[in-house]
Amino acid sequence: MVINMASNSTEAELQHVIDRIKECGFTPHVTRGSERAIVAAVGSGGNRSALEALKAAPGVEDVVPIAHPFKLVSRQTRSGRTRVQVGEVCIGGDEAVVIAGPCSVESREQLFSTARGIKAAGATMLRGGAYKPRTSPYDFQGLGVEALRLLREVREETGLPIVTEVMSTEDIDVISEHADMLQVGARNMQNFALLRQLAKVDKPILLKRGPSASVKEWLLAAEYLLAGGNPNVVLCERGIKTFETEMRNTLDLAAVALARELSHLPVIVDPSHGTGRRDLIQPASRAALAIGADGLIIEVHPCPERALSDGAQSLNLEEFAKVMASLSAPLRSVAAAFAAQA
Amino acid sequence: MVINMASNSTEAELQHVIDRIKECGFTPHVTRGSERAIVAAVGSGGNRSALEALKAAPGVEDVVPIAHPFKLVSRQTRSGRTRVQVGEVCIGGDEAVVIAGPCSVESREQLFSTARGIKAAGATMLRGGAYKPRTSPYDFQGLGVEALRLLREVREETGLPIVTEVMSTEDIDVISEHADMLQVGARNMQNFALLRQLAKVDKPILLKRGPSASVKEWLLAAEYLLAGGNPNVVLCERGIKTFETEMRNTLDLAAVALARELSHLPVIVDPSHGTGRRDLIQPASRAALAIGADGLIIEVHPCPERALSDGAQSLNLEEFAKVMASLSAPLRSVAAAFAAQA
Amino acid sequence: MVINMASNSTEAELQHVIDRIKECGFTPHVTRGSERAIVAAVGSGGNRSALEALKAAPGVEDVVPIAHPFKLVSRQTRSGRTRVQVGEVCIGGDEAVVIAGPCSVESREQLFSTARGIKAAGATMLRGGAYKPRTSPYDFQGLGVEALRLLREVREETGLPIVTEVMSTEDIDVISEHADMLQVGARNMQNFALLRQLAKVDKPILLKRGPSASVKEWLLAAEYLLAGGNPNVVLCERGIKTFETEMRNTLDLAAVALARELSHLPVIVDPSHGTGRRDLIQPASRAALAIGADGLIIEVHPCPERALSDGAQSLNLEEFAKVMASLSAPLRSVAAAFAAQA
Amino acid sequence: MVINMASNSTEAELQHVIDRIKECGFTPHVTRGSERAIVAAVGSGGNRSALEALKAAPGVEDVVPIAHPFKLVSRQTRSGRTRVQVGEVCIGGDEAVVIAGPCSVESREQLFSTARGIKAAGATMLRGGAYKPRTSPYDFQGLGVEALRLLREVREETGLPIVTEVMSTEDIDVISEHADMLQVGARNMQNFALLRQLAKVDKPILLKRGPSASVKEWLLAAEYLLAGGNPNVVLCERGIKTFETEMRNTLDLAAVALARELSHLPVIVDPSHGTGRRDLIQPASRAALAIGADGLIIEVHPCPERALSDGAQSLNLEEFAKVMASLSAPLRSVAAAFAAQA
Q: Do residues D191 and C187 touch, judged by C-beta distance below 8 A?
C-alpha cells in the first residue's frame, strides 16, 4: 500500500500514519516530495484491510494498493497450470473441452435427446439446470431433485460427466450426490456463504464471473474456494453488463487471457450467456479458443423456441453439430499451442 | 409482447408464430407493414417466458416486452404507499428515518459508544454487521452470533431497533431471533434461494439494490419477497458500478424517484456505499431526501481509521452529529411534502 | 507517480527506472519491500506523460499516479469560487439559476412562446439549439444561422441571455456574434480542436460532461479552456451511460458535489438529458439543488409531442411553471447555504 | 414503431395518437389487449423522429422502435461485402490486413525505423498520429504538418499507405493531401460536423467506435459518411468503457461479429487501445481474427518506454515481429474462411 498524504497535511498527521502502519504490522517508508509526502507500507504479514481504513485518518488523501490481494490462485504461488479432472474429462489440459446441454432440465425426453445429440457432435460434458436462478418469481424455477435424478440417469447411459448449478448451501449435499461438478452462477459469485461451504466439498467447482465483477473480484471469489480447501476450480467468463443493448451481455474475451496470466486456474467461456444471441455463438466460440480458453459451455435445446428458459440463446442439435464441426481443429490445436507457449 | 418478424420471413413462419402464441395462452394480433409483419400477443393469463423463447423461432427477428413484469410491488396493484413498521419506527411515513451504525460490530465498546452517539444525534435505528460479505477471504468476516448478542443488548439499553445483514439461509433463524429487520446485501440481491426463505419470515426486509441491477431487476427481487408472503419490504439504493473511479459507486438518485413511481414500497438511500467518500455523505444525504427518499442508512464508527471494514466511508460521531443537524429540517418536511404530493 | 517493480525484476531494471525518472525531470525515491521495490518519482516540473510510458520498461509492473493531473481548474490553485457572468445573470453566485428552452429552435412562434413562458415562470436564461448533434443523419439537424437570428431577436424582446451549442470550429464566429454563452455538447467534450478554439473566445462556455467521461476527464477538458485563456467555464452534469435502460442516462448527482470539491468552477445540472423522462425532472431538479448545484438547464417546448427533437424529455410551459413554483425556495436558499459553507 | 398506451389511457388519447401517426406519414394499426392498447405505426416513408416524440403525448406509456434506424450501411441494402481500397491494400478482402505504427510521429528517426521494422515483419499499412487528441492539455499534442510531411516521405520510401487521425474540419485538406486514409478517433465518433465534411472527401475513412457507443450508434455514425457521399468506410472496434480497471478498455469482440452481420462494411480491431496492455495484444489479435475481423491496427514504437504517448500499450519492433509470426496463418486463412461462409 502507498499512503498519499494531502498537500496541506501536518507533520503530526504524517507521524500518526507512520505509527498506525507499524501497529498494523508493516514497515513505513516516507518519501517527501515538493508538494506532499507519500508513505509506503512494506511487508507481507500485516493487516491490509486495516491499512485501507487509513483513508479516514486526518491528512490522508488516498490509500493506493500496490500488490494484488489474492494469493493461492496466483501464478506467483504456482507456476504450472492447474488441471481439473471431472470424471474422465480433464479441464485445463492440452485439449479444449466443450460442455453443452439445456439451460434447464425440463423432461426425460428433452434431456436424453439433448445428451445423445451433443455427445454425437463431440461434446464431452453435459450441463443442465435443476435449480434455476430466475429474475422473475413467475418464471420456471427448475425441477429440483427430479432433474438431478434424470441427470444421473443420463450420465449412466452416455458417460458424460454432469455439471449443474447450486444456488443454496442447503442443496449442496443432494447435488454433490448426483453431479460431477458444481456450478456457482454469475449472480452468486459473491455469495460468500455459499463459497465457504463449497470450499469443503470434494467436487470440482465451475465459478462463473459475476455480471459486474472485475477480474480481481472474480479471482478473489476463487480464492475463497482455494483458501477453504478446494483446489479444483474452473473459472468461466460469461459476459459483463454494459450499456450495449443489442447483446445480452458484453463478452469480455480479453479477460480470459488476463485471468490465465494472473492465475493458474483453467478458464472456459460461455458464449450463450456472453452474447445472448444464437447467431453469435459460433464466431464467439472460435474467438474464445483463439484467445486461449480451456473450453466452452454452450446452451443446446432440441427445440429452443419451446425452451422454458434461455430459448433465444440456445442452439438446436443440428446447429450445435455445425458449430462443433467448425471448431474441431481449434479444439485440439489451440489449447495445445497455448500450453506450449505458457 | 410484440413479436417482430424478419423482413424476409415467410407466411409459414408467421403462421407458426401465431399458433405458438395461442398455445402459450395469448391472443395474436397481426399487423402487416410495408416491409415486415409484427404480431402482438395480447392477454394476461399466459406464459410470458414461453413467448420470449419465440426469439428462437424461424423468421422471428425480435421479441419486445411491452408491460412491466412485476405485479405485487407495482403501484398499479396498490395505490397507497406501503409503510413498514420496525419496532417503534415507521419507514415510509411522513418523516424520513435515519439508520446509522458501524459497518461491522467489532466489540462491545465500539458498538455501545456508536449506538449512544447516533441516538443522541437523532438517528432512530441502528445498523451493524454480524456476518460480513467481504471481497477477500483474508478480510474480517464478522463476529457472528456474538455480534448478534451485542446488538440485542444495545437495543435493550437504547431502544433503537436493529437491522443486520443475513448472508445465508442457515443464519435466518438466529438472526430473526435477535434483530428487528433483516438486510439482503447488494451482492445477494439475486440470491433467489435466500429471497424465497426470507419471504416466509415474520420480519421486515431491507433489500439493497445490486451493483449492476436495473431498477426492474431490483423490483423483481422485491417481487420474490411479496409473492412469497412478506409484504414488509424496504428498498435501498446504494450505488451502481460504472466506469467512474473517484467514487466507490455511482449513486443513482433518480432511481429512487423512479422506484417510488413504479412501486408503493418505501425507498431509502445509503450514501456511504453509494459514494464511498466521507466528504460526500452530507450533500448526498441532502439530495436523497430532496428526491423523495424515505430515509437514509449511514455508516458511523467511533474511530473510522481503525474500523475493521469500510473505514474510508464511515463518519465519526462528531461528523455524524453535524450531518444530522444540517438535515434536521428536510428530515421532517421533505418526506411529508412528497407524501402530500403522491 | 509511483513505479511498482515486478516481484521478479532485477537490480539492473530498477537502476534503469531510476535513471529514466531523473531524465524525465523528477527525483527518484526507492523503497525496498520484502517482495518488491517501489520507486516514487517526486517533483512537479517534470514530464508526467513520459513517466507513464515507464509501464513499458522491463521489470515494471505498474505505474500509479498519485496527484491529480489538472491545475488551473483545481481548488488548490484558487480558493474562492468562480462566478461566471452571462449578461445580467451570474452563475456560481448566491442564487441558483435556471436556464430553459427548447432542444432545437424550430420556428419563430415556437421560440417566442417558449421564451415568454419560461421568463414568466422565473427562468433567467434561454437555451435553444441552432446546430444539433443527432445520432442519425436522417433526423432534424437544426435551422443554423436562421435559428441564431431568431435567438438574438428573442433576447432583444425578453432580455434573457442566450446559450446555444457550437459543434464545429467553423461556426464559432457566427455563434459568438449572436449568443451570450457557447455550449460544448456532451459528445464533443473531448473534441480538443474545438476546446482549443473556444479557449480563445471572449464568451463564457457551458461544458457538458461526456456520457462516459470520468470526473477527472471532465475537469481536464475544462483545463483545456482555462489553459488556453478562457476562465469563464460552467460545468454541466447531464448523466452518464450505464446498463440501466429505464432512463436515458444515469444522472450522477454525487459528481456535482465532487466536481465542486475538486474545482472552483460552477456546476449546473441538466435533468432533462440526465433522466430522459419528463416525470423525473421535478424530483431530479430538487435533488440537484440540494446537492449544491449552481443551477439547472431544463428542456421546455410549447408542445413536446410535436417537438422535432427530445420531445419525450421536454416539459410543456404549464409543467415547467409548476416545477419552478416547487423549486422557488431552494433556488434562493440552497445555493446560499452551500456558498456560506464553502 | 409501436406505441404502447398506458393502462389508464382514454379513448380520446388513443384517437389522438392515431391522428398523429397519420400526420407523420405512417399507417396506424391498433391492437386492444385486456389491459391496454398498442398501436403499430406502419410504413417507411414517414418521420420516425416525430413518432418518437409521441412519448410526450397524453396516455402514452412508451414508444418502442422495431426496425433498425440505419439504411445505407445495412446488409439489407447491399448483400455483398464492401472492399475498401487504400493504395495497393484492400481492406475487406480475402486477407486480413495489419496496420501498425507509432501512436504519434515523434521524429524522422523514430518514424523511419518503425516503418521499416513493421514492413519487414509483414504489416501492409502504416499508422502515425500528427494531430493527437490528449486527455490533458499538458500532454504532447503531435507535430502537426511536420508529421504529415514525414509520413509522406516514409511512404515514398516504403510504399506503405498511411492512415492518420483528423481531429478538426480545418485540417481535412492538409491531411488529405498527405495521407491515404483518414481516421476518425473514438472521441470524435459523434462529432457530426466532422463526419459531414469527411463524407465529401475522396479518401477512405477509418471510423473508430466511441468508448460508450452502442453498435447501433457506431453504425449510424458510419451512415453519416455514406449518406453524405463517401462509401469507403472501415469500422474499427477499440474497446468500450466499463467498470473493469485492470485493462484500459473492454475489447468488445462480439461486436465485431455483430457489426459484420448488420453491415456490409469491413471491421478491423485495435487490440492496443482495446486492452491497453502489451501482454494481451497477441492473444487479443488472434481472437479478433478468429471472430472474423478484416484486420488489425497495432501500436508499435522502437522504444515504448520513451514514447511520448501510449507507451504502455505499444510493442517494440521485436515483439511486433513475434506477434506477426504467430498470426501469419490466421491472417491468410481466417478471413477467407469467413468470406466463404458469408
A: yes
